[in-house]
Amino acid sequence: MEIGKKITELRKKSGMSQEKLAEKLDVARQTISKWELGETAPDLKQSKELSKLFNVSLDEMVGNDVRDVLVEKTSNTERLAGLILKMIKVVVVLIIVVPIVMIVLRIAFKADYERRSGRLVNTSIMCKIHDESYSYDFSYYETTGLIREAGGDSYLSNVVDINSNDAYRALDRIDAYAKDRGGSCERSEIKPVNE
Prior knowledge:
Elements: H1 3-13, H2 18-25, H3 29-37, H4 44-54, H5 58-62, H6 66-116, E1 120-129, E2 132-141, E3 147-152, H7 154-157, H8 167-180, E4 184-192
Helix pairs in contact: 1-3, 2-3
């Protein structure tokens, strides 16, 4: 609402004539008429006096509805808070769900890989080198040779290339090592684990 219309509305509401209002503000009646017609507007000092006289805020005098601004800012803040809460929920769900899914997938893929890798076998190799006996045990998948567990005498563990993770290669290396030193090895499958 324009200030002129607001002055007219407030003046009539308080039961004053243009002359009476002009007297209270120490201006001419024509000044009040020009304000109400929108031809001119009161200056800041006169606007303050009008707001005191009519017991309204300056914002209300000039038509600024502070309540609408506050309501809009409040609703914007509430929307932002709601969005932040949704984002926090998503992050929390990701922090909890993703590791669980990763663990489940790893277990599933490992089980599938082991299934496709064949049965799990345990093989022991006993070697005699320079009248000393050494042994090394392997647990590995028959089809791929992938070592699941391995261990034995530290003398042979220095010879075995466990980094390759290939039981067949490791067994062949131990055999070759013993033969190169005039020794011999015997392999024995202890028992199949998955049959």
